[in-house]
Amino acid sequence: MALQELTRRLATVITHVDEIMQQEVRPLVAVDIIEQLHRQFAILSGGRGKDGAPIITFPEFVGFKHIPEEDFLNVMTYLTSIPRECGKSLSTEDETLKNIAKDKVSVEAASIGFVIVIDRRRDKWSSIKASLTRIAVAFPGNLQLIFILRPSRLIQRTFTDIGIKYYQDEFKMKVPIIMLNSVSDLHGYIDKSQLTQELGGTLEYRHSQWINHRTAIENFALTLKNTAQMLQTFGSCLAMTELPRGMLSTEDLLMSHTRQQDKLQDELKLLGEQGTTLLSCIQEPTTKNPTRKLNHSELENIATMERLLVQLDETEKVFSQFWSEHHLKLNQCLQLQRFEHNFYKVKLALENLLEELAEFTGIGDSVMHVEQLLKEHKKLEEKGQESLEKAQLLALAGDQLIQDHHYSVDSIRPQCVELRHLCDDFINENKKKHDTLGKSLELHRQLDKVSQWCEAGIYLLASQAVDKCQSREGVDIALNDIEAFLGTAKEYRLLNPKEFYNKFELILTVDIKAKAQKVLQKLSDVQEIFHKRQVSLMKLAAKQTRPVQPVAPHPESSPKWVSPKTNQPSALAPLPRTSEEPHTETDLNSLEKEDDGTKFEVKNEEIFTRSHDDGNPELEHLDREDLSPRKETHSIYYVLENKNHASHKSNKRIENILQTKLPRVHCFKNGVLSEYDM
Question: Does residue 221 belong to any structural domain of this protein?
Answer without folding.
Answer: no
